[in-house]
Amino acid sequence: MSKALLYDATICIGCKQCEAACADQNKLPYDDKVAAEAVQSEHKYTVVLTKEDKFMRRLCMHCEHPACASVCPVGAFHKTAEGPVVYDVWKCIGCRYCMVACAFAQPKYEWQSLNPRVRKCIMCPERVKAGQQTACAEICPTGATKFGERDDLIREAQDRIRQNPSNYVPHIYGLNEVGGTSVLLLSGVAFEQFGYPKSEMVGDTPMPEYTGRVMSKIPDFIPLWSLVLGGVYWITHRREDVTAAEAEDKKSRGAQ
Amino acid sequence: MKIKFTFWKLVFFVIMSLGIYSAYVRYAHGLGAVSNMSDQFPWGIWIGFDVLCGVMLAAGGFIVTGAVHLLNIERLHSIVRPTVLTAFLGYCLVIVGLCFDLGRPWFIWHQLIYMNPHSVMFEVGFCVMFYTTVLFVEFLPNVLERFNLKKPLRWVKGIMAGLVVAGILLSTLHQSSLGALYLIMPSKLHPFWYSPALPFFFFGSALAVGLAMTIFESSLSSRAFGRQLELPVLIELGGALLVVLWVNALLRFEDFFRRGQLGNIVKPSYEAYFLWLELALAFVIPITLLSFKKVRRSPGGLYLAAVICLLGFVTNRLNVSVTGFETWVGHHYVPKWTEFMITLSIVAAGFALFGLAVKYLPIFPGEEHQAGHRLEAREKPLAVATVLEHAGD
User: What CA–CA distances, in Å, run from B158 to B169, B315, B369?
Assistant: First the structure.
């Protein structure tokens, strides 16, 4: 059973304590200046966005089938059994394909560093493994960010929408997007207002399938194409040999 | 004449100095300081041009070796060596470009031990690595002949057929896979360029560009090194290019039609302007030019058509890698001057190295044994200045 986070924007009060707790957990600087930054970056893995009286959190979605893990040439990302998508910095060569591939543009880069790392929310994997909640869920004063079993949280989200249909857009973001994510979102306003890609844009297909369809053909393609190329070589050069042999034959017959 | 090559020498010197300065900024202050890449635009021209276009421009290697060794078209033999040289240099420079672009280039060998078979990037990396090795061996006879090492030369010639087959196989894989890199971004890449057929388009454009680049390179060398132009060979390549361009154009049209984009591509928009530029340069103009027999049979006409076609497909790859993301990102990406200088220096170094190789190695051997029907190359000692003259072209 994998863990997940449920963020309910309608309960969020925008206190940004999750931002501070996240920074603390990941040993990142956090002060008023960082708090005022309304974008995620290499030093801010999660952000609470404000639009009038509405709030919305952004963080890595921890896809069930993560694009970052599938595209990484050295396998520096993987999804753990508990749910978090984690990053092994020692493998990373810095190609940044993960950043380009992520439908939610979550991986950020240490552009100023001479030994740069990819940075993103990794869902406090040590805490989760030890049976604790993530830092952001633990500190949340209203329960807007809730940690739990993914299945339980889906049921809870469905209940909340059912009980208060006027409060919510009738959609759990992350339930099926890109094949499902370990971060589930509820909101009173459209998700794309806060930069989330439209559900119909990202679709329900797990991202790795788009490239997987091509990659899976390669093992068949290699022997087949080699055979064709070898065959062509044989035919074109056979013709040459035959011509040479015939000429030789003619010559020897002419000599007789 | 004296003034001219001093001028090109100066241009080359200026480009290289600015390039070296930019390289210093890259390694002393990081990617953020040297480029305009950002979290929104993690890939800039170093991927869009140096890698995507670099690999495409070096495609002549597998096409010409394939035509000569595999299809046994002996009359193209005279252009094998310069084409292999172009391809070998091209791939080496792609790797050099990668060493600027990768955040941690000193770990590039991790590809060999932490392999992720699901990654298109892994497949591209592996193929490029192997193919560069193949090209190195295909290039080796130049060096071996130069130092008159007969025995290893025989060994290399003995495995040449295998090398050529391996080269075509690896090229088919990674040329198309460069397009497959973008398959995972259906929601990000603009529908003008995102298509499930991207791998086919990348392979098709590599075929076209390989031919165009061979025409371009042969025309330039004939001018720079005072060699006689192998016009019959170029005419043949021009004819092949026309066919390949038609096939490419029809496939693109079919793809726009199938994905219901035909209505959108005629409507003016930011993306449409870039698409029109691309389609005009890659297809409309070169196909029109090459359709005239007179153009197809004149050195100038072939050269012009080839250059326009090259520009067209370079535009195509930059559209796929840059233009196509601008709407999703919500702002434009323009490379920083230092970023641009590194790319320009790599190109300049390519020209200069080509010139040096021609000077010191039997790339255009007049005295080669087997092919009697080759046009005699005029032996002419080349000054480094002429090499550099080439650099600015």
Answer: 19, 40, 17
Closest-CA residue to B31 (of B240, B380, B338): B338
pLDDT at A255: 64
Distance CA A136, CA A24 (A): 10
Would the pTM of this model clear 0.95, i.e. be above it?
Answer: no
Low-confidence ranges of chain A (pLDDT < 50): none
pLDDT at A227: 92
Q: Tokens for B59?
A: 């495609």
Which candidate from A41, A221, A226 shows the least CB-CB separation from B39?
A41
Q: For residue A136, which of A3, A16, A35 has the smallest C-alpha distance?
A: A16
Side-chain-side CA neighbours of B186 within 13 Å: the count stands at 20
Chain A residues with CB under 8 Å of B199 CB are 214
CA B333 → CA A118, B91, B97, B268, B379, distances in Å?
Answer: 21, 26, 19, 21, 47
Q: Do B72 and A240 touch (CB under 8 A)?
A: yes
DSSP string for B222-258: HHHTTPPP-HHHHHHHHHHHHHHHHHHHHHHHHHHHH
Angle, alpha carbons A33-A38-A41 (nearest 5°): 85
Of A92, A112, A239, the CB nearest to B104: A92
How far does the CA of residue A83 sit from the closest CA of chain B (Å)?
Answer: 20
- CA A139/CA A158 separation, integer angstroms: 24
Residues 212-251 on A with a CB inside 8 Å of B are 212-215, 218, 221-222, 225-226, 229-230, 232-233, 236-237, 239-240
